[in-house]
Design a protein that fits this description.
Blueprint lengths: L1 E4 L10 E4 L9 E10 L2 H8 L15 E9 L11 E4 L12 H4 L14 E5 L3 E3 L6 H4 L2 H15 L7 E5 L3 H12 L3 E6 L2 H9 L4 E4 L6 H8 L5 E6 L6 H6 L1 E9 L12 H6 L3 E4 L5 H14 L5 E6 L3 H10 L5 E5 L7
Parallel strand pairs: 8-9, 8-11, 9-10, 11-12, 12-13, 14-15
Antiparallel strand pairs: 1-2, 3-4, 3-6, 3-15, 4-5, 5-7
Bound molecules: NADP nicotinamide-adenine-dinucleotide phosphate.
GO molecular function: oxidoreductase activity
InterPro entries: ADH-like_C, ADH-like_N, ER, GroES-like_sf, NAD(P)-bd_dom_sf, Zinc_ADH-like
Protein name: Alcohol dehydrogenase
Length: 342
Amino acid sequence: MQRYVLGQAPGIDQLRLEEASETELGMDGVRVEMRAWSLNYRDLMVVKGTYGGRYQPGLIPLSDGVGHVIEVGSTVTRFKVGDRVASCFFRDWIEGPLTPVKAKTALGGGVPGVLADRVVLPEHGLVHVPESLSDLEAATLPCAGVTAWNALIDTAVLRPGQTVLLQGTGGVSMQALGIAKAAGARVMITSSSNEKLERAKQLGAEATVNYREQPEWDRAAYEWTGGRGVDVVVEVGGADTLPKSLRSLTYGGNIAVIGVLTGANPEMPLPYLFSKNARMTGIYVGSRLQFEAMNRAIEQNKIRPVIDRVFEFEEAADAFRHMESGSHFGKIVISRKGPEAK
Ligand SMILES: NC(=O)c1ccc[n+]([C@@H]2O[C@H](COP(=O)([O-])OP(=O)(O)OC[C@H]3O[C@@H](n4cnc5c(N)ncnc54)[C@H](OP(=O)(O)O)[C@@H]3O)[C@@H](O)[C@H]2O)c1
């Protein structure tokens, strides 16, 4: 088998494609011939050694992948040869609340990731892929999709007619756009690019604001809601955006705290939090049960993930460079075509 591993020193240029012997299957193992992967901002941080303070030479990166089952262990009941499957971000978080033990099983972090042509995972760490999606589309779901679902549906309990503020046009935000529209919400989205905002409008965003041209986008959000404030913010910006997210929120509103793109230590206008009876909840992707619930919603509502660009398996380093450039809109995908690629 072929797999990518992190090099001795951090950096995209250090990523190495190497030959390795097949992983042992085990009784509950499922061997998957991989067809597609997607990148998350966290994977870029892992490769550059800026994620969680610990760089791990030799680690296989990436949490998100889709492939076809080619072999199953003797106790496997949920999958058979030929099934299309996707990896779960947390290998061992099946259901219920996150625990320290489950949190240590993030693919491409605490345990080896999936950027290899063949991967073995325990059956509890895989889900069936929605029939309505191609392999490339389905590969965008495990991290960004489940995070957006957890934030909007399970945590903020989004209702039809409510308003959602999304930050930027990256992976999480564009997955959230699809889910929010399917849930009947109205969406305002921010971006540094007017061209990206135009594309977001075509995908259903009702309101747009360029956060470079209009740094006080919290005011724009307030005006857009007629002075009421938004019901839900999907907060991926961190230090620079969180204070504005609080200001843009309605009474009883929800902020799903997800990312730290602009830094991790915000100066918080706390009075906004208590005086508005607002809720702020940390989101860390989600469980397999949440992934499966999202997949049913994707099929039923024909939600289509937004793919920015597709790279070949051999071009994985270029995919990381593309993410580093910040020019993407939606998800960056890596592809490896096989005979039955969908
Ligand atoms: N907690 C979790 O479970 C979880 C899960 C997934 C991701 N995350 C985190 O969420 C963040 C986003 O991840 P991702 O994979 O979606 O990243 P991504 O695809 O690389 O998206 C990044 C986008 O964010 C936008 N952005 C950058 N600075 C911004 C700012 N100041 N205000 C508003 N938008 C800004 C940019 O959009 P424009 O180009 O349109 O300006 C950029 O393209 C990262 O910090 C990541 O680590 C956390």
